[in-house]
Structure formats: structure tokens, C-alpha cells
Backbone:
């Protein structure tokens, strides 16, 4: 059984406690590896190494030199794509196709941010200062410096990609980083650390660190450490709130990408086959364990029956099971806990009056933690199933007739990550985009963001965001210079 180590100050190390924790393959229900059970001592060692790298060399190098390391990370991933894909499938039961996409996309992500080395820039600003004779005598410019040592705290659902989402902009801008993977899925990330240690020994020590352990121990120690200048968390609203509390005394910047409850709006003039296909794909991908998934559908009354009939046919035809089976749309939930949560929230919805159109139960596949593709109707706007993140293959569908009312219902949610609109009328689409208050709106397509966009939630879905130019600037601090001559 693989024991994969932490990576601290350029060395592969076990935990200071000498303890390890098990990682389960949720499809096969067997232990596949162990990771070090790190604690605050391990977090502090990594942060001190990162702080030393920040003080000495790292931010002083040209961005292009730092970008060279990102290109090497991308190459290592591509050279080991098959092994990393298998490990990702094993630790979280992601179907093989999607796992391959995540590994490949992560390599592309490092290359993408490497490409920013000679692109990000400051601004020159006009000054109103003048000499006695009226001629201008001042230059003002805004430049950017790396924010400092960053803590990156990752979730279990896209553990490899989200790691890169934090490492790439940090490394490029000159911020040493300490990554804490989720304890549910740490192995692919730790294997990447091992590959870096073996293949890129010239990477300056302390610039990139991986520490494993619990959120309340390692995660909290990272947040509270005085040398950490920003924590970037991807995870639940609850963890985000804890990080805000832990960072309050320090008045520290946080970049929080939290949960979602995306509404999908289907208008009377929508291409119904497209809407059904894309909403089902959004809901069922990775068994619903995706932050930006369609979590609730609002369908116009004139197309409601047709939509529901076709959606039921789609869900009923969905193959799920072995992550390596070519026709599997999804595989096991990541853990017994996650399956229990999906089961419980669905049962409470049914007890409150929801009707089960299809599914509505745990599926027995002889192994793994499976839930049936499920459609619920007869749900109230203020019910738990319409307001809270399900994170499983369960879709509540609501009927609407009035435009203002459906927009109000879509916006009436503590989450504000993503949303989608299905219509063939450009005026309808444009008006809905204007009226929907979400970080992202997808039109006539599935919910999935691009690396050049900006993934940033409204309301409790987060603070700040990731990807593209704006994600890069999260890691930079401005300085305005007034130079009078
Ligand atoms: P989680 O909040 O349970 O854990 C996320 C990470 O935070 C883990 O590494 C955990 O150990 C750590 N953590 C927990 N408590 C902490 C604390 N007090 N201090 C510091 N760190 C702490 O989330 P999860 O179950 O791993 O992931 C699922 C959640 O993540 C869902 O809500 C999902 O919507 C969200 N998510 C959001 C995005 C996005 O981009 N907005 C992407 C993926 C997942």
C-alpha cells in the first residue's frame, strides 16, 4: 500500500507525529494508500520555509523564470498522465473520462498561467500636479507586488485541478505557497509532490509545500500563522466562515470559493432537447458532486410536461457504476458520509411533500456508495431541497409562469455561484443575464467554467475568485507611486 509523503522545504517527509491516515477507494471499498497525519507543527515548518523563500530569492526572480517551473509542472503531469489518472479514479471514483480531463486540464492550467509571465502589468495614471508655470511635474503609476506567503486549502471533489488553481497564480506572481489537500483525496496531489521532488530538484526550497491533515488542525494553523498573507480556500461555506473567523484578528485577505445552488431557467422558446441534455449532464456529472452543477431547474409551464418527460427518460437511461466502464456517466459518491447526506436531504424533501418522478433511493451495485439519478417535483421555493446544496444526483424541478417571479426565485438563495438560461430568443437571454445575480451565467450549455474566465461567487458562494486575469491579480498587492520632478 502506497504511503505518500508531505513536501516541506524541498523534502519529502512524514508527519512530525509519525502517524498516517488511510485513504479509501470508495468504489472498491478498500484502503488504497496512506497520507501523513500532519498537525500545526508540520504546517508551521512549511510556512517558515515558504517565508524564508519569500524573503530571499523567489519574488526577486523574473516572472518568466518562475513560469519555467510551471511549464515543468505541466510536463511532469503529461509524462505521468496515465498513472495520475488512475490514482485520481482510485481515490474518489471519478469516471475515467472525467479523471483524464481533470489531469490534462491541470497541465493546461499550469501552461496557461506560465503564459501570463510577460503579460500582467500595472498602470500609468495622469497626475493633476503642476509647477507654478502650469506644466505637469508628476508621474503616477500603479504597480503590483506578490501578496506574500499564501495558504491554499483544497476540497476533495476536484483535488488535483483545484490545487493547480492555487499553485499556478501563486508561483507565477512570486508567492510561495503551502497547500493543504483534503484528507479524503490527498493521494494524487502527494504523488505530484513526489514527482516534483524527483524531477525538479532545482525548484527553490520552500516555494511549494504540501502538508496533509485535518481542517481544524493544519487548515486552521495555516490561516492563523502570522506569515500567511492570504488564504485561498475552495470548500464549504462552513469552512469559509471558520477561515474568516480565524483570519479576523490578522485582518487578512481571504479568497473563498464555496458552495453553489445553481438555478437552470428553461424558457417557453427553449430548445427542449438541448435543455434536457445539458441540465442532465450538469446534474449527473461526477454524481452531482460539483460546485457549479445545476442544483434546481425552473421550467416554463408551457414546456414543463415535455421537459419532465424527456428529463425522466434521460435520467432513466443513465448508466452508472464502474468508473472504468465506457458507458458510466458517474460512479460512486466519494464516501458513505456523502451518500448519507444525499439520502437524508431527499427523504426530508419527500416527507415535506415532494413527489419522486424517478429514483429517490440508494442504488445497490454490490460495491460503492451509489444514489439513483433522481427527479423531484412538488417542492416549495423555501424548502431545504431548493435552498441547500445537495451535492448528489438529485434534481428538484419547479414550474413557472411569470418572468419576474422566476427571476426572484432564482436569486432567492444564499448561494450565488452559477446559473444557466435556456432560450432561443436573444432578448430573453440578455434580459435574464441582466437580472440574474450570480458569478457565472451559462447560456444554452452545461455548467462548466473555462480557465480564462473568472470563477467567483456572489453571496455565501465566496469572496474573490479564480482563473484568468482576475484570478491572477488575487495574488498581487497594488502600490501607487507619486514621482514629482
Ligand atoms: P470542506 O469545507 O469540508 O473542506 C474543504 C477543505 O477545507 C478541506 O481541505 C478541509 O480540511 C478544510 N477545512 C475544513 N475546516 C477548516 C477550517 N476550520 N480551517 C481551515 N480549513 C478547513 O469541503 P469539501 O467537502 O472538501 O468540498 C465540498 C464543498 O466545496 C462543496 O460545498 C462545494 O460546493 C465546494 N466547492 C466549491 C468550489 C468552487 O469553486 N466554488 C469548487 C469545488 C468545491
Residues:
Amino acid at each position: 500500500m502506497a504511503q505518500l509523503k508531505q513536501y516541506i522545504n524541498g523534502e519529502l517527509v512524514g508527519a512530525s507525529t509519525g502517524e498516517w491516515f488511510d485513504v479509501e477507494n470508495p468504489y472498491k471499498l478498500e484502503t488504497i494508500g496512506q497520507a501523513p497525519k500532519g498537525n500545526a507543527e508540520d504546517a508551521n515548518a512549511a510556512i517558515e520555509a515558504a517565508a524564508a523563500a519569500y524573503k530571499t530569492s523567489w519574488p526577486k526572480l523574473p516572472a518568466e523564470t518562475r513560469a519555467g517551473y510551471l511549464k515543468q509542472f505541466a510536463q511532469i503531469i503529461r509524462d505521468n498522465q496515465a498513472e495520475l489518472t488512475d490514482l485520481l479514479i482510485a481515490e474518489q471514483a471519478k469516471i475515467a473520462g472525467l479523471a483524464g480531463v481533470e489531469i490534462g486540464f491541470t497541465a493546461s492550467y499550469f501552461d496557461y498561467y506560465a503564459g501570463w509571465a510577460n503579460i500582467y502589468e500595472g498602470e500609468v495614471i495622469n497626475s493633476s500636479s503642476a509647477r507654478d508655470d502650469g506644466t505637469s511635474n508628476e508621474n503616477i503609476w500603479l504597480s503590483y507586488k506578490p501578496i506574500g506567503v499564501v495558504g491554499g486549502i483544497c476540497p476533495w471533489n476536484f483535488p488535483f485541478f483545484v490545487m493547480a488553481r492555487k499553485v499556478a497564480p501563486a508561483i507565477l506572481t512570486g508567492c510561495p505557497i503551502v497547500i493543504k489537500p483534503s484528507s479524503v483525496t490527498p493521494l494524487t496531489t502527494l504523488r505530484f509532490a513526489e514527482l516534483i521532488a524527483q524531477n525538479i530538484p532545482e525548484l527553490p526550497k520552500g516555494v511549494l509545500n504540501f502538508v496533509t491533515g485535518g481542517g481544524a488542525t493544519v487548515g486552521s494553523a495555516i490561516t492563523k500563522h502570522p506569515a500567511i498573507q492570504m488564504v485561498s480556500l475552495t470548500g464549504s461555506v462552513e469552512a469559509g466562515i471558520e477561515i474568516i473567523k480565524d483570519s479576523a484578528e490578522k485582518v487578512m485577505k481571504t479568497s473563498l470559493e464555496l458552495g453553489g445552488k445553481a438555478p437552470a431557467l428553461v424558457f417557453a422558446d427553449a430548445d427542449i432537447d438541448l435543455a434536457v441534455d445539458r441540465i442532465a449532464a450538469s446534474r449527473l456529472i461526477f454524481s452531482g458532486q460539483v460546485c457549479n452543477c445545476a442544483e434546481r431547474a425552473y421550467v416554463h409551464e408551457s414546456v414543463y410536461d415535455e421537459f419532465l418527460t424527456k428529463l425522466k427518460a434521460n435520467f432513466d437511461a443513465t448508466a452508472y457504476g464502474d468508473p472504468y466502464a465506457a458507458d458510466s456517466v458517474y460512479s460512486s459518491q466519494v464516501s458513505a458520509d456523502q451518500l448519507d447526506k444525499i439520502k437524508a436531504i431527499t427523504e426530508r424533501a419527500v416527507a415535506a411533500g415532494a413527489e419522486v418522478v424517478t429514483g429517490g433511493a440508494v442504488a445497490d451495485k454490490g460495491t460503492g456508495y451509489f444514489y439513483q439519478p433522481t427527479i423531484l417535483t412538488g417542492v416549495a421555493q423555501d424548502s431545504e431541497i431548493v435552498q441547500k446544496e445537495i451535492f448528489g444526483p438529485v434534481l428538484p424541478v419547479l414550474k413557472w409562469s411569470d418572468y419576474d417571479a422566476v427571476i426572484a426565485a432564482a436569486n432567492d438563495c444564499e448561494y450565488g455561484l452559477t446559473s444557466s438560461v435556456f432560450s432561443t430568443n436573444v432578448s430573453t437571454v440578455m434580459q435574464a443575464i441582466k437580472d440574474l445575480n450570480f458569478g457565472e451565467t451559462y447560456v444554452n450549455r452545461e455548467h462548466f467554467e473555462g480557465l480564462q474566465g473568472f470563477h467567483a461567487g456572489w453571496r455565501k458562494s465566496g469572496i474573490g475568485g479564480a482563473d484568468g486575469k482576475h484570478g491572477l491579480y488575487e495574488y498581487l498587492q497594488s502600490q501607487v507611486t507619486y514621482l514629482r520632478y
User: Anything to note?
Assistant: The pocket of nicotinamide-adenine-dinucleotide is lined by residues 153-158, 180, 182-183, 214-216, 219-220, 223, 233-236, 239, 242-243, 257-260, 291, 389, 417, 455, 457, 462 (CB under 6 Å).
